Amino acid sequence: MPRNLDLTALRSFVTIVDAGGVTRAAGFLNLTQSAVSMQMRRLEDSLGVILLDRSARKLQPTAAGEQLLSYARRMLALNDEVYGLLTHAQFEGELSLGVPHDIVYPAIPQVLQRFAAEFPKVKVRLMSSFTRILKEQFGRGEVDIILTTEDGVDVGGETLTELALTWVGAPGGQAWRQRPLPLAYEQRCIFRKGVQERLDAAGIPWTLAVDSDNTRTVEASVSADLAVHTMLDGTEPRHVERIAHGGALPELGRLKINLYQGLGHNPAMDALSRLIRATYAQPRPRLVASREEMLSA
């Protein structure tokens, strides 16, 4: 008698492997941790094999699990393709998502991938800009959902997480020791004014060594040890590093990552917001990886 694999359990298995653990997988799947664990036990019992090596800190597939993983990905992809083809016909069109450039990775690619599986006929237009610009566009109704990095949160927004703002410079660099302190900022960077005010309050003279409208120009100047910059904890790319200043520079506090969703809710827009919330709800040592790490992954 033919026996059928449980696609829901297979999806949990694949998500656990991709997320590196049951807790994070549960968040991505919008399920409880116990529900995901139960699905895994049921899948292993039905096949009569152990699929996950639970002895390591990060769950890894066993030999049998690696063999199943390849088939599971293909089965789920085909399932999602067929399901998307025959359903959600009423949810077609385009959604716009605005995200500050420094928090795009790795959360947003994960969100977009999962959203595309749920709503294959809805196109998401990703807009990357500064918080100030995104809020202006959102206020004019030009973008459906935005993420922001702010000190507080406006009416209608919700805070997803908080990250520390840190000083960054060239690896082994000495620019942070100079006085006046050379700063490098984009012209519309929302961190810029607050950092300058903290330096003034600490009695540290500073000069705007790089005043650019281009993020790459700022990164190149900082990596060349011509100036210092500030970034959210965990967002620094490989060619800069957090400055171990030992108190020589002021602490910069924490910034909120906020979500704003426009009016005219529909299942697709609500699903996109739900996926963003689930992704940011996952505990991880580095919420945002460098661009180079994402490209090489």
Sequence-ordered SSE layout with sheet pairings:
Elements: H1 7-19, H2 22-29, H3 33-47, E1 52-53, E2 60-61, H4 63-86, E3 93-100, H5 107-118, E4 122-129, H6 131-139, E5 145-150, E6 157-169, E7 181-186, H7 192-201, E8 206-212, H8 215-223, E9 229-232, E10 241-242, E11 254-261, H9 267-280, H10 291-296
Parallel strand pairs: 3-4, 3-5, 7-8
Antiparallel strand pairs: 1-2, 5-11, 6-9, 6-10, 6-11
Helix pairs in contact: 1-2, 1-3, 1-4, 2-3, 5-9
Radius of gyration: 22 Å
Low-confidence stretches: 285-297
Strand percent estimate: 15-25%
User: What is the average per-residue confidence, as pLDDT, rounded to a whole number?
Assistant: 86
Helix content: 40-55%
List the main descriptive attributes of the protein structure presented here.
297 residues; two-stranded antiparallel sheet; disordered C terminus; 40% helix; globular; Arc Repressor Mutant, subunit A; seven-stranded mixed β-sheet; 10 helices; single chain; 2 domains; alpha/beta; D-Maltodextrin-Binding Protein, domain 2
Write a concise synopsis of the structure shown.
With 297 residues, this protein is an alpha/beta fold.
Note down, in words, how this protein is organized.
31% of the residues are buried. α1 packs across α2, α1 packs across α3 and α2 packs across α3. The C terminus is likely disordered. Strands 3, 4, 5, 6, 9, 10 and 11 form a seven-stranded mixed β-sheet that branches. A hairpin with a 6-residue loop joins β1 and β2. The chain is built from ten helices and eleven strands. It is α/β, with parallel strands linked by helices. The protein has two domains: 80 residues, Orthogonal Bundle (Arc Repressor Mutant, subunit A); 205 residues, 3-Layer(aba) Sandwich (D-Maltodextrin-Binding Protein, domain 2).
